[in-house]
From TrEMBL:
It is a multi-pass membrane protein. It holds the Pfam family Frag1. This is DRAM1 protein. InterPro entries: CWH43_N, DRAM/TMEM150_Autophagy_Mod. The keyword Transmembrane applies. Keywords: Membrane, Transmembrane, Transmembrane helix. GO terms for cellular component: endomembrane system; lysosome. It comes from the Eukaryota. Belongs to the DRAM/TMEM150 family. The chain crosses the membrane at residues 54-73, 94-113, 125-145, 157-178. Residues 8-182 form the CWH43-like N-terminal domain. It is found in: Endomembrane system.
Amino acid sequence: MLCCMPGVAFVPALLVSWSSAAFIISYAIAVLAGHVEPLVPYISDTGTKPPESGVFGFMINISALLAAITMYIRYLLIEKQNESSHFVRSSCNIFTLCIGLMGCTGMGIVATFQELAVPSVHDIGASVAFGSGVVYITLQSVISYKSCPRWNTYLMCHIRMAISIISCIAFIPMIVFASKISMTKIDWTPGEKVKSY
């Protein structure tokens, strides 16, 4: 089952590199085209207008695929470790994988439906992606603690749990503030009236 596992360590690194490139390239195109201000725009704002929207959509869809592959590799690794240690139920591992794949689907929705073209679908995709991501990393943290000390160090478990806690804390204000706004355009001119909904 895991005969090629030693050769797949590049996949998570490729995921991080590709995703970073997706955000940086679409940001650069959006700024150079004058579609967003250079100072800290929303990620989705940098993929709303052509030509950056095509680059953003394509690259984020590839990121979603790479994330799904990474999660499946993690699932297989835990299954293999679990054969000798029995530290977690197989159903818990499968459930965690399904939550992660749900997040990847949310990423695909965000990439496909631009922020201003279909805002409700885009927002649902973002909520699924971020919400599932928070649950996924939290479940992976719990699995890591259960596999200690044989398959993980406590330091690694603490780092994963810290990331989980930070993700949970960041997710709550994201939902609160996202529910308070309704965007119909990205660029505003001075003196322009803002519609309230």
